Amino acid sequence: MVAGSVRADEYQDLITRGNDHFKKGEYEHAIASYEEVIDGGKESAELYYNLGNAYYKTINIPAAILNYERAIKLDPMDEDLRFNLKLANLKTVDKIEVIPTFFIGEIGEDLKDSVSLNTWGWFAIVSLWLSSLLFFIFTNISSNTFRRLVFFTALSLLVLSMGSFGLGYQKYNAVYNDLEAIVFAPSVIVKSAPDQQQTDLFLLHEGTKVSVVEEMGEWNKIRLADGSVGWIPQETIEQI
User: Distance between CA 73 and CA 107 in Å, rounded?
Assistant: First the structure.
């Protein structure tokens, strides 16, 4: 227990040191302190946010975007995070048009990001438990009016439980399974197949966000927000 608490103190000292360096404009030193904490296995939205800010100050836009994106995965509703990410994206060369989504899909995305993964889990469990309890009560009461009220309340809670489970599952995939990355190479030619001799499709520049849909050796098949697909060397991107 003592060793664990000391180690926690060391991490906190590094974070405090990084914050002090940042306030003094010593951004490279701040980066080194924050990165040491992350290398030690600690992470938080605030830590990635501060690291992204430090990289932004050093004009390392790909690294700033990478860490803002990592922070948003942990805290998707933080407005300061989203604003800073938007500022960083304005400094990238590639302006990718996002494929429009049906408004119901947009509502689902907003709902999914409105609370944490753990909260969706608790919503699903508590709603299911209450629904089961009310269905049990429903089978043991005689008043038709009260039975109807209990039945529809239980049914609503069951639907809420299923919806919470579905949104929680989507959020789990977004955080842990969906592979997204940031282009770190100054520029990279996207190929039609995982081979340098294959057809050139288009050019990407540093800071662009991509989805990794397949891996083959030292190549990754990527998809852009506009639906474009191709292959790039794995070494040119950094996973979020």
Answer: 18
Buried b (16+ CB within 10 A) or exposed e, 51-81: bbbbbbeeebbbbbbbbbbbbbbbbbebeeb
Cα(135)–Cα(147) distance, integer angstroms: 9
The pTM of this model reads: 0.71
Distance of CA 56 to the CA centre of its chain: 19
Integer Rg of the chain from CA: 23
Two tokens, residue 175: 């955080």
Specify the pairing of strand 187-191 against strand 180-183. Answer: unpaired
Tens-digit pLDDT profile for residues 7-63: 667 888 999 999 999 999 999 999 999 999 999 989 999 999 999 999 999 999 999
